[in-house]
From TrEMBL:
It comes from the Eukaryota. NCBIfam families: TIGR02452 family protein. Residues 1-24 are annotated as: Disordered. Pfam families: PARG_cat_microb. This is Microbial-type PARG catalytic domain-containing protein. The lineage of its organism: Eukaryota, Fungi, Dikarya, Basidiomycota, Agaricomycotina. InterPro entries: CHP02452 (IPR012664), Macro_dom-like (IPR043472), PARG_cat_microbial (IPR019261). Residues 127-278 form the Microbial-type PARG catalytic domain.
Length: 439
């Protein structure tokens, strides 16, 4: 007799009539969660990698800036000699000036140039420059303008002679200060004067957003603020370390002890004939004739640098408890102080006879001044004037104090600040035009 093929189900373990869920259906939620976690961890890993790479690149760049700054200091505080390397052999000139206004000599050096078709013999030119005499003249001409200078404090009451007014050409450049200055002098060689019996001089003024503590700020530590870039690529630090400039830093230290909130004082230093001799990061001029790497030496050119410390709005907001009800008091105070400081800077440029200016987003960036405010103040001082109340409490439009004083004005605003700066400047001009039409 064969075995019964029907298996008996023990009592209490009878099969349910409901169909069982497949195993995959039961495990699906846990699989989805695990996959989501893996994807999240992978994204976080890539983010960390990108941050690490960005940090490493920035650290390498700071190290490069530090080396360049150290070499610049060696030149400007030493014998004033350096070598420019060019890839071809044009006649030596300083940005269109021929012959060169600086002492120089050329040496041709054969080099091997690589091409897809093979190697070829080319000629590089090493140009030796001696800028020491110009550095001496710049230091001797360095001028300190004190906080209480009556000539500057009375800028509101001073009007330019109508017979000397010119039609100002205003332009905007998403470039660094030095790159904008080099472009300006390349297009307008008339702003550099030279004669056979004297050293050259410049009529291009550059506003430096200066440190209140030390010459060149942190340029010897790899810093890249606006003044630090100037100090890294020019002879500015030689002027700022002169006897004439020492009072500038002493005054700021005294004022800091009285009011350490970040307003700073109005004292400034004017450094004439500062020699620029390095290529800035965004400089694309004559890259077909010379190495285009950042910090490479170039033919020297001259600018006049005015060092002024902007209001540190970030420090003010940090040191005071500012509520929504009194915020306007602080903002108005910052605006009025900045207007006065910027107007004094323009007055100094006017007194010194500068015909072209390179300005910018004065005090924005790390000092956190409002970019729209700075752009509007430049527009009010240089172009459209401002709305001011009279004794009868009625507003009227006061003319721009420095309109028509300078032939060329370039606003050099690199990076993400360029668009909001230009937009605010243009909107201020449009607003004043509407007001004039309405009145």
């Amino acid at each position: 007799m064969g075995r019964n093929s029907v298996r008996r189900v023990p009592q209490g373990r009878a099969r349910s009539s409901a169909p069982m869920h497949p195993l995959t259906a039961i495990k699906q939620p846990s699989v989805t969660i695990a996959r989501s976690k893996r994807q999240h961890h992978k994204q976080e890993h890539f983010k960390r990698q990108r941050r690490q790479l960005a940090f490493a690149a920035h650290r390498a760049k700071r190290s490069e800036w530090l080396d360049i700054a150290s070499d610049t200091q060696r030149i400007v505080l030493g014998d004033g000699k350096y070598v420019e390397e060019r890839l071809s052999a044009p006649s030596v000139s300083s940005l269109g000036l021929s012959p060169s206004p600086f002492q120089c000599s050329e040496v041709s050096v054969p080099v091997i140039s690589s091409h897809p078709q093979g190697h070829s013999l080319a000629t590089a030119v090493h140009v030796d420059y001696d800028i020491a005499p110009q550095i001496v003249i710049s230091k001797q001409g360095t001028t300190f303008y004190p906080h209480c200078s009556p000539e500057l404090a009375n800028w509101r009451g001073i009007r330019a002679n109508k017979s000397s007014l010119v039609s100002s050409n205003i332009s905007f450049a998403p470039k660094s200060t030095l790159t904008a200055a080099r472009r300006l002098i390349t297009a307008n060689p008339r702003f550099t004067k030279q004669s056979p019996n004297s050293l050259p001089s410049s009529s291009i003024g550059v506003l430096s957003f200066a440190s209140a503590k030390r010459p060149g700020g942190g340029f010897l530590h790899g810093g890249d603020e606006q003044e630090e870039t100037l100090a890294r690529s020019t002879s500015l630090v030689a002027s700022l370390r002169s006897e004439q400039a020492k009072e500038f830093y002493q005054t700021h230290r005294k004022f800091l002890n009285v009011d350490g909130a970040g307003l700073h004082d109005h004292s400034m230093v004017y450094s004439p004939g500062v020699v620029a001799f390095r290529r800035d990061d965004d400089d694309d001029i004559d890259v077909d004739q010379a190495p285009s790497r950042s910090g490479s030496t170039i033919a020297p050119y001259l600018v006049n640098v005015l060092s002024s410390v902007p209001v540190n709005a970030a420090a003010i907001r940090q040191n005071y408890l500012i509520t929504s009800s009194d915020a306007y008091v602080f903002e108005d105070g910052i605006r009025n102080t900045m207007r006065d400081r910027m107007a004094r800077a323009l007055r100094i440029f006017e007194i010194r006879g500068d015909r072209a200016l390179v300005l910018g987003a004065f005090g924005c960036g790390s000092r956190q001044n409002n970019i729209e405010m700075v752009a509007e103040l430049w527009a009010e001082l240089l172009v459209c004037g401002s709305r001011e109340g009279t004794e009868a409490s009625k507003e009227e439009i006061k003319p721009a104090k420095f309109k028509g004083v300078f032939e060329e004005i370039v606003f050099a605003v690199p990076g993400k600040l360029f668009e909001p700066f230009k937009r605010a400047f243009d909107m201020k001009l449009f607003e004043m035009e509407v007001m004039k039409a309405a009145s």
